[in-house]
Design brief:
The chain folds into two domains: 148 residues, 3-Layer(aba) Sandwich (Rossmann fold); 166 residues, L-2-Hydroxyisocaproate Dehydrogenase, Chain A, domain 2 (Alpha-Beta Complex). Helices cover 43% and strands 21% of the residues. It has nine helices and 14 strands. The longest helix is centred in the last third of the chain and has 23 residues. The structure holds adenosine-5-diphosphoribose.
């Protein structure tokens, strides 16, 4: 149990996170900050606090529009951002406009963290994932052990779920990793996918596997289309919580996370989804996987996409 965990952004994902942190009793204090009025995060925190006697839980939950509420947090989960919604004139913002808006939000988030919890470990979930984590790093200079993006755990969970469904086996039997940037270029690593320790090809034909891998790459969009409003929020929250628990319980669990590479995989200075040992010190070790030639080629394409986004983030810096 940590002393304090803070959630930035009290929307759909932030709401599930606070609820789960309390139910799983992962910190003595849980703080939620959101700028949305009249006071969204205060309302969500009060709702959960008022339910705490029912579940017999003495965790202190506090919400506020002011970043001071996150003061002294040991761990921060960042979900602050705006989704792609129509502008007042009815047109959709371009990708660049959306990126610019979300970078501005990230600058406000960075200011809050820098002022009130500069030593906290940070797990960032907000999209565009790679751009936001990179901007947090630019703004805060957080050591690489303490700053990670959550995407790979969710992308891997989606891949595992689709494999389990197709093979007709328990999700617990499926082990898989999805690496690279969080977007169209992510790479489900088929060569490392195992069903009860056996190669996945023993259970699923190549054409079906290819379809599953495509579905994995587009899984976020599939949920967005079905929901009509907003994007997936329970599975991303649970995925971030797997990282939180790996840190709190010092599990040394190998998870796919977006981490700053310093020469690993031949990449320097970019946040990329790779397997890493997650424990009480955060990202404790990056694991370099043996990839097939095709996977290596796909990884290079993904790195190019991540680099392009990082360059855009730098170009959008005042
Ligand atoms: N400080 C704090 N919170 C902010 C700020 C800010 N400067 N700017 C915006 N927010 C809040 C919004 O008010 C909103 O309540 O961030 C919250 C985001 O919540 P949702 O819109 O419900 O989005 P959610 O589904 O939770 O997803 C959050 O994670 O997976 C990604 O693409 C997703 O970027 C999105 C993020």
């Amino acid at each position: 149990m940590l002393n304090k965990i803070a959630i930035i952004g009290g929307g759909n994902i932030g709401g599930v996170l606070v609820q789960e942190l309390v139910q799983r009793r992962l910190a003595k204090n849980v703080a939620l900050v959101d700028v949305k009025g009249p006071d969204l995060s205060k309302g969500k925190a009060l709702d959960i606090a008022e339910g705490s006697p029912v579940i017999g839980c003495d965790i202190r939950v506090e919400g506020s529009k002011e970043y001071a509420v996150i003061e002294g947090a040991d761990l921060i989960i960042n979900t602050a951002g705006v989704p792609r919604t129509p502008k007042p004139d009815g047109t959709l913002p371009t990708r660049e406009e959306l990126l610019a808006t979300n970078l501005k939000i990230t600058d406000a988030v960075s200011e809050g963290i820098g002022k009130f919890a500069p030593k906290a470990k940070i797990i960032s979930i907000a999209n565009p994932l790679d751009a936001i984590v990179y901007r947090l790093y630019m703004n805060l200079g957080t050591p690489r052990e303490h700053l990670m993006g959550m995407a790979g755990v969710l992308d891997s969970a989606r891949y595992r779920y689709f494999i389990a469904e197709e093979a007709g086996v328990s999700v617990e039997n499926v082990e898989a990793m999805v690496l690279g940037g969080h977007g169209d270029t992510m790479i489900p690593i088929r060569s490392a996918c195992r069903v009860a320790g056996m190669p996945v090809e023993k259970f699923i034909a190549a054409d079906k596997l290819e379809a599953i891998e495509n579905r994995t790459r587009n899984a976020g969009g599939e949920v967005v289309k079905l929901l009509g409003v907003g994007s997936a929020f329970v599975s991303p929250a649970w995925s971030a919580l797997q990282m939180v628990e790996a840190i709190i319980f010092d599990k040394k669990k190998i998870l796919a996370v977006s981490a700053l590479l310093k020469g690993e995989y031949g990449v320097d200075g970019l946040f990329v989804g790779v397997p890493a040992v997650i424990g009480k010190n955060g990202v404790e070790k990056i694991i370099e996987m043996d990839l097939t030639a095709a996977e290596k080629a796909a990884f290079a394409v993904s790195i190019d996409a991540v680099k392009k986004t990082a360059d855009e983030v730098i170009a959008m810096t005042k």
